[in-house]
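Q: A reviewer asked whether we had any structural model of the full assembly, not just the individual parts. We don't, so I'm hoping you can provide one. Inputs are below.
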Amino acid sequence: MKIILHGTRGAYPTSTPDNQKYGGDTPCIELIYKDNRLIIDAGTGIIGIDWSQYDPKKRLDILLTHLHMDHIQGLGFCKPLFDPNREVHIWGPGGSAYLLQTRLNRFLSPPLFPVVLRDIPSQPEIHELANSKIELGPFTVHSSFIIHPGSTLGYRVDCGGKSLTYIPDHEPMIGKLKLYDDDSWVSGFDLAYETDLLIHDSQYDNEEYMKKIGWGHSSMQICAEFATRTKAGRLVFFHHDPSHSDDHRTQTFDSFMSKNSYDFPIELAVQGREIEV
Amino acid sequence: MAGRSIEIILSRQLADCLNVPVFIVDPEGNLVFYNASAEGLLGRRFEDTGEMPMEMWSTGFHQTDEDGKAIPPDQLPLVISIKNHVPAHKTFWVTGYDGKSHKISVTAIPIVGRAQEFVGAIAIFWDNTSNS
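A: Here is a predicted structure for the entire assembly that you could use as a starting point for your response.
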């Protein structure tokens, strides 16, 4: 299975010279197995996907972790949605007072967007997920609610004997710098357990996190502890803060790694990076 | 391993921050967590007891009404919430494992999570002993 990181930035897209190294687009990743493809999140990174690689006769599935703007901002500019002959399925979190379709309509309608969801040519089918398991071609997808403001899912995708866990926005312990000792009390634990690749929120260092408690994000320290506890094979620090330059991000990462040691590789997410698992 | 629902995890995180006793139970009624303030009420530490089945925590301390008459376990607010999935409230006396008596008011509410599942219940205690 190959994973392409099309968008790695949290909160809002950036295009400053200081944010080119890790990329400025907001979350979107693409999973490829043979000629099967799956997209998770529809941040502005979705706009950069090479659609010519897709068989237009095959259905397109897009999984959304949640509906914060940075994760859906590219949806209205996703070309296959405007192909009337395309079968498109959008999956996202249920568990709200309003249907997923209703919540998506708030964004995909005037005045925020010129075309209402019901008029989008592909007529995408909207599906709600909870703590669910679905099969999408060769991909087995587990979703689970995780701790983040609003209804938010993390995903685990198993395919070809390998697994990816994607939890781009996550605050597993609110106001604390350490997880509970008992694994069963750790949000998202089952999704990430013994996963081959974990892509996880790591927006802050501990100092910055303590100034932004409840905003829904993790420090690098909590993220790495989560990966250690879940026995992840490999960790990608994701959801870079757009208000920080890439130099700042690199320095924070280098400082963190110089003080800590892990028995699995850790890297900062880079837009455009392709990872084989 | 079956992890707990985020609603129960968040309830514990809330309970950790509160200076009033809190019990959290799973759908079967097992007491999966009680906070430091509740330890004073029970006379036992969570680290020492760990989880407790309903038969243990609901009978482990003696509860009576204002007239000293014993209250059966199935009339405790938390047991009512677990069995009937409804909120419940009651004021009564309890004697903890340490033999100390407290007059307490208990409010229990069922927890229904995002997945529309009943995932347990939480009870918040108010110790009225000093007002009695």
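A: Points you may want to mention in the reply: Chain A has six helices and 14 strands. The helical segments of chain A are 69-72, 100-107, 189-192, 206-209, 220-230, 246-259.
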